[in-house]
Specification:
By secondary structure, the chain is mainly alpha-helical.
């Protein structure tokens, strides 16, 4: 097995274990907490996840690029300084927001003023952990990354369940998130300093730090703004929705987005972390890079397309059974959102190519387009009284179109010919034919849920066997 797939497998196992914990506890959490409480928590989470990716001003992303450890460690220190600065600005911003009383009613109704102050604490802790993550990637500590993900999810979910069962109401969700962040960061930092390479600390002084910061100034100048608008495009719609839709609908939407995002974390982040290292290695060897991209595209389609079809036909029923009858609306929403999942997944994995080739302005342009279009769509659809189903459909279509455009740009950047997609489409259509047939039969003819489950199982089994038989060698070819 190639080193790429060994590293990917290590991180995937860690992410898989973390997601397994999350998956097993979500049905418990949805029975402990109401959709209203879940909606309030996800508004808090949206603010955290908006600030977190830009907390280090993206200097952390530059950690992979320097060849010498002194410069890389300087970026580590610069990233820490940036995180502290971001947290200070966040505290000032929250104070102003609270004084001006600009938060949605959902916050006032749940008496969440104290919870506001957990936001900068979580950003500080996770921001430091994020820097450690990139250092671990640089030194090849993929096992540390995997174990840290497990710690984070285990503490987060278990504490949320225990506090909720003990009568802590929605506070359990916030306490779990805080302690999970601490566990993750401590684990990552321990792994970050396992590298035995000698770092000449004597040259890491103010003048040297300023020189390094200047050398990689394109990251805060362009990449930070790119992730800023990306964060607004991802989390801005939910914040806008909080002003126009009930807390329960926010909870339904948040659960649908969370479940749909699991493949991103389950496989996408694992592939992204390892693909970044390979992309740097093959930066000048585009033939190998194209081959790797070809395999990733096939993997994405084989894994995600069956999931899309299942969710479109049986999403509501699945959510009612797994999460409780009160969450069936979330199952309907996830079916609509799923139409864009393949393009989102590929963009998440391949998006690091913008930074590897330092096309940061272009990434910023795509993110700005997505940001503006999503926010405008969310505001117009919500403020004009359309149902949440219409809003979700519009957002999904925007994701699909804009992410596809960004992926096509990346294809051209590495010389990946679009004609290769024709072969992928033909292979996938043939190998997934049983699933397409069952989807059509289910939509138009099946009313018996038990029979539908059996037929879907057989179709998935058949397609899995065909893919394993035909494509096993392909996935093992990269050396």
């Amino acid at each position: 097995m190639s080193k790429f797939f060994k590293d990917a497998l290590t991180v995937t196992i860690g992410n898989s274990s973390a997601q397994l914990i999350s998956v097993l506890t979500i049905p418990v959490i949805t029975r402990i907490y109401s959709p209203e409480e879940y909606g309030a928590y996800n508004l808090f989470l949206a603010l955290v996840m908006f600030f977190l990716p830009i907390s280090s001003w993206r200097y952390n992303a530059a950690l992979m690029l320097p060849r010498n450890n002194a410069r890389a460690f300087s970026l580590f220190i610069i990233s820490l300084i940036a995180v502290v600065s971001t947290v200070i600005m966040c505290v000032i911003g929250l104070q102003l927001a609270e004084k001006l009383n600009i938060f949605p009613e959902i916050w006032a109704e749940k008496d969440m003023s104290l919870i506001l102050w957990i936001i900068p604490i979580v950003i500080l802790i996770n921001g430091i952990g994020q820097i450690g993550l990139f250092w671990c990637t640089r030194i090849g500590q993929f096992r540390t990354i995997a174990v840290s993900r497990v710690y984070e999810t285990l503490f987060d979910r278990v504490i949320a369940v225990v506090v909720g069962v003990m009568g802590g109401l929605s506070w359990g969700l916030y306490v779990g998130r805080l302690i999970g962040s601490v566990a993750y960061t401590v684990s990552v930092l321990r792994g970050s300093f396992k590298n035995k390479a000698r770092i000449p600390l004597r040259i890491i002084k103010k003048k040297y730090l300023l020189m390094v910061a200047e050398r990689y100034k394109s990251f805060p100048k362009y990449s930070t703004w790119s992730f800023f608008v990306d964060g607004l495009s991802r989390h801005g719609p939910l914040i806008i929705m909080a002003y126009y839709y009930s807390p329960a609908l926010i909870g339904f939407y948040a659960l649908a987005v969370q479940i749909l995002g699991m493949p991103m974390v389950f496989i996408g982040d694992a592939l992204s972390n390892v693909f970044l290292k390979q992309a740097v290695k093959f930066k000048e060897d585009k033939k190998n890079l194209q081959k790797l991209v070809y395999i990733i595209i096939k993997m994405a389609i084989y894994f995600l397309l069956p999931m899309i079809l299942v969710l479109l036909s049986r999403g509501s029923d699945l959510f009612s059974v797994v999460f409780g009858a009160k969450w069936s609306v979330a199952g309907e929403l996830i079916g609509v959102l799923s139409i864009a999942i393949i393009s989102m997944f590929l963009h998440r994995v391949l998006g690091c190519l913008f930074e590897v080739y330092e096309h940061l302005k272009t990434r910023l342009a795509f993110d700005a387009l997505l940001f503006v279009s999503r926010l405008i769509a969310a505001f117009l659809v919500s403020s004009h009284g359309f149902s949440i189903y219409v809003l979700v459909l519009v957002l999904a279509l925007l994701n699909l179109i804009i992410y596809l455009l960004a992926i096509i740009y990346l294809f051209r950047l590495i010389g990946f010919r679009l004609v290769q997609l024709k072969k992928i489409a033909i292979d996938c259509s043939f190998y997934l034919l049983p699933i397409f047939v069952v989807f059509l039969v289910d939509v138009y003819y099946l009313n018996n849920n038990l029979l539908a489950v059996f037929i879907w199982f057989v179709a998935l089994l058949c397609s899995s066997y065909i893919i394993y038989s035909k494509e096993r060698k392909l996935f093992m070819e990269i050396r």
